[in-house]
User: Fold this.
Amino acid sequence: MVTLVARQSIIIKCNMQTSALLGNYEFYYAAGLFCRLRGIEVDADILPGALKEKILPALQASEPDDPKERHLVHMLLKYEPTDEYEKQMKELLRWGLGEERIWQVN
Assistant:
């Protein structure tokens, strides 16, 4: 259930271009989605700080035309992950990496 809520939250925020990431659960799904969009390979067991470091160069170089993707990049750039890590975050990262229904809530 937590994973579904985190996924839906990110999609709604990007569709509406509002709000910010509220925790590592959202961060992991958002980072996975960004990696999917950019073709970045990432190990699903990566810890929060290392994940941010891995995607940071691509985030900083990113200038997407799509407003939803632009908001995704904005949220990821502003978010500072905590050290909190749970197995559901790995699931969220994988979900983002394999997302087939980008920007669709259900």
Q: What stands out?
A: The chain has a mean pLDDT of 95. The CA atoms of residues 15 and 68 lie 6 Å apart. The first helix runs from residue 2 to 16. The helical segments are 2-16, 24-38, 48-61, 67-78, 87-97.
